[in-house]
Amino acid sequence: MQKEMLTIKQASDLISIQFKKNVTQSNISYLVNYGRIKKFADNGNTLVSKEELVHYYDSYYGNRQLNWKEKLGDDIDWHLSFEQFKEAETTKHVHRLHPYKGKFIPQLVEYFLDDHTDEFKKEIYFKKGDIVLDPFCGSGTTLVQANELGMHAIGVDVSAFNSLMSNVKVGKYNLHELNIELKKITEALQQFIVDSNTVKFEQRLLEKLSDFNNEYFPSPDFKVRVKNKKVDEEEYGRVKEKEFLPIYKKLVKEFGIELKQKSSENFLDKWFLQHIRTEIDFVFELIKKIKNPNTKKIVSIILSRTIRSCRATTHSDLATLLEPITATYYCSKHGKICKPLFSILSWWDRYSKDTLKRIAEYNSLRTETYQRCFTGDSRIIDLFSVTEKVNLDFAKQLSKQKISGIFSSPPYVGLIDYHEQHAYAYDLFGMERKDKLEIGPLSNGQGREAKESYIEGISAVLNNCKRFLADDYNVLLVANDKYNMYPTIAEKAGMKIVQQFKRPVLNRTEKDKGAYSESIFHFREI
Asked: What does pLDDT average to over the chain?
């Protein structure tokens, strides 16, 4: 039996070699902690069964491509799955400065922007020194990757917050100055809450939770029992949640904790506990005093990222936000009783350090090219005019050189309300919302009128952008066209689809992990 057992390191080495993947020790530990494979012990060392380990990875990797092709069709270009990249690589450097629904991974952008060819991509669409346009800029992935590849890029987005996020990612910063400002705010926040009853309350609550969870949700045993269907997770969790609630309420009363805010008029009022809101306002006032405008912008993004993680919701409901949570609850994600947050300090500190690290990493890769995202409606914006107002030299280059093409992911019809996903930031920063200018928002649904409006909107964007494109342009649009709208869009824009790539979308963060594909349409002038 001992010969069939492996240490965590041995397991990592074995699977990495056998499956030609970079499987880390952390990956193996995750499988153990979440009950995917059994844990054995020998003198305090964690061991796993070699047979069980190989079986798990064989079923995961060995049949993955076959299963997806059975569900989505043989025309899937599996090489565009980018399954060889870990999450840390698909969210590398500044790409993870702030969460954003609906963004594509940088490897997809690189594939179509760089100068390689293969059996699928048979020609080069862009080269160094070209100007690339993303009329649905979102979180700025195209701008960032264009910079890495030595290309200029212009983005347009109707959302003021998206534009801020994109420009922050490609901005240049004095890291020493930024570090000083972040430390000043962190120290001020620590001092602000040091004598707070909320801090003392949370410390006591964590002690009670630790004792309770160790007794009723031992890790990883409880998750293994759930996986093997030896316990009804939903029923058991509900019972234990009710059992712990009186302990929580007693502590709330003992420390005089004020949970809900007095008002619930806007997002900040409704989705943050009172003490969290007090800390948010405190930090924001300090940010307002920062003199360097570039530093102020990046610190504002750190605060926005922080407060998104501190909303009064469960760990498994960050994406959908059903109802505010003000009490302890059973958490299916972690398999134990969890609590809402009562301070932003830990997330603020973590994201401050993470941001400094990511910017430094990107600085080592970036090129001396120009990128800018403009807030505006891509159906009518005059790119020559808006560029001239902020950079006259580049405006002259743009007018003479023209834009080589577009790489963008238009919104999917009836899927996301792009302003609403960052409602907290609009409330905090006082930015103007232009929801009515969104193309294909969730609020419009996916009915006939919504689809017709979507087709008109996307084709109007392409027709407007053609004014700024070079004669031999390439347009590459990433879309899940399940309603077959893009042939009509191409026709209305005076373009033709010359090629269509179809890729499986793996490693999705949403609860729905089902088979899903999207197309990359290559448009050219008729």
From this structure: 92
